[in-house]
């Protein structure tokens, strides 16, 4: 047993099979990170907004956690595998390798519609739009703002989302619409002290 572990450790330390081993470890990290992120989120959202038996709620949490972990692990595995393959054809890593590998893998892994994939894709969309704006300033495509633009960013985001909620609510993601309904619509309804302070609805 000790000899086997020593052999594995020597292979890992040698740097041999680095591309393959980094792909395998990427899969492992995808599983762990997906579970760490999704489990507490699914648990909280289920306890706050879902109704049903304890078994149904537990199944929902487990399914969401499994889907997130599986998809993230598969994405990392195939992304790293494809970038390593492309690099082997061109002797060194090029910028377009990242886009091509992620484009192909994203289509097959995160292109299937489900609630988990929708949330992950929307999460990334907001981050890349923010990142692209910073990239445009960094490269000089747009001038560096002379004052802090974050308040204007916040104003536009909140102005648009509340307008959509109030007048085009069917265009919003269901979970966003649900919590906005709780905050803005349900706070207009009460019949007594019970559903004014103690409960949202009787």
Report what the structure shows.
Helix 2 runs antiparallel to helix 3 (54-90) and helix 3 (54-90) runs antiparallel to helix 4 (95-109). 78% of the residues lie in helices and 0% in strands. It has 2 domains: 12-144, no CATH class; 145-202, no CATH class. It contains 8 helices and no strands. The chain is mostly helical and 202 residues long.
Characteristics of this structure?
8 helices; 202 residues; flat
How would you summarize the topology of this molecule?
Elements: H1 2-14, H2 18-49, H3 54-90, H4 95-109, H5 115-138, H6 150-167, H7 174-185, H8 193-198
Helix pairs in contact: 2-3, 3-4
Short description:
With 202 residues, the chain is mainly alpha-helical. 78% of the residues lie in helices and 0% in strands. Helix 2 packs antiparallel against helix 3 (54-90).
Outline type: flat
The overall average pLDDT, rounded, is: 90
Q: Number of helical runs?
A: 8
Question: What helical percentage do the residues reach?
Answer: over 70%
Low-confidence stretches are none
* Portion in strands: under 5%
Gyration radius (Cα, Å) is: 23 Å
Biggest sheet overview? none
N-to-C CA distance: 63 Å
What is the succession of H and E elements? HHHHHHHH
**Would you tell me the structural class of the helices and strands?**
mainly alpha
> Care to count the β-strands?
0
Task: Write down the domain tally.
Answer: 2
């Amino acid at each position: 047993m000790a000899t086997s572990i020593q052999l594995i450790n020597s292979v890992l330390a040698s740097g041999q099979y680095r591309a393959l081993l980094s792909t395998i470890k990427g899969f492992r990290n995808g599983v762990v990170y997906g579970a760490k992120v999704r489990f507490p989120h699914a648990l909280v959202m289920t306890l706050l907004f879902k109704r049903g038996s304890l078994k149904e709620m537990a199944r929902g949490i487990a399914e969401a956690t499994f889907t997130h972990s599986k998809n993230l692990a598969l994405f990392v595995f195939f992304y790293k595998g494809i970038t390593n393959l492309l690099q082997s054809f061109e002797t060194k890593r090029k910028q377009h390798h990242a886009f091509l590998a992620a484009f192909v893998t994203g289509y097959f892994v995160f292109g299937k519609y489900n609630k988990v994939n929708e949330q992950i894709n929307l999460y990334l969309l907001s981050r890349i739009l923010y990142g692209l704006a910073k990239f445009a300033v960094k490269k000089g495509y747009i001038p560096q703002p002379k004052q802090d633009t974050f308040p204007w960013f916040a104003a536009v985001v909140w102005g648009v989302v509340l307008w959509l909620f109030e007048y085009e609510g069917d265009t919003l993601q269901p979970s966003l619409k649900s919590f906005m309904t709780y905050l803005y619509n349900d706070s207009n309804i009460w019949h007594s002290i019970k559903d004014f302070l103690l409960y949202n609805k009787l």
